[in-house]
Amino acid sequence: PPKGDRGFHLIDVAGGTGDVAMRFAAAAGPAARATICDISPEMLAVGERRIADAGLADRVALVEGNAEALPFADRTFDAYTVAFGIRNVTHIDRALSEAFRVLKIGGRLLVLEFSEVQVPLLDRIYDFHSFEVIPRLGEAVAGDRASYQYLVESIRRFPRQEPFAAMIRAAGFERVSFRNLTGGVAAIHSGWKL
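-> structure tokens emitted (194 positions)
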């Protein structure tokens, strides 16, 4: 994030716990602001406590809202982030269109999400871990195999790197790119509203 007193304003969608917004606010300087928008009031309550404890309540706002119909005016934000949340949106194309709408000209979209492993052998190890180990751990530790099975399946249903980049372009973003992390276990997608 930029430093100084530019008044940079970030929106972090599905960021109820405050992780991204707090890091941004701490690093970006005193004039920078962050708004967290999450559909879950329970997650927002967790974030509100954490933000207050960090002394950032004057720079980080929390708003309940749906990624597919953001409760903000056009061209409000300088950057839009979503980390491990867009795969749970019902209509990803609508969420991307909303991201484009609320960004200022020159604004940047950053999406961190699980993706397709693109390293031979690692892909088979990852699949075994995902479909065999994670649901069993969920059952053993939390007594909840179904939620962990859903997690794995939601990751598999999410568009892979290139198709997701095409969706970002279709929403109007330019200079779209992605970078794989850990061989593609996750990827950071980026686009600009130019």
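The beta strands are 9-13, 33-38, 60-64, 77-83, 103-114, 174-181, 186-192.
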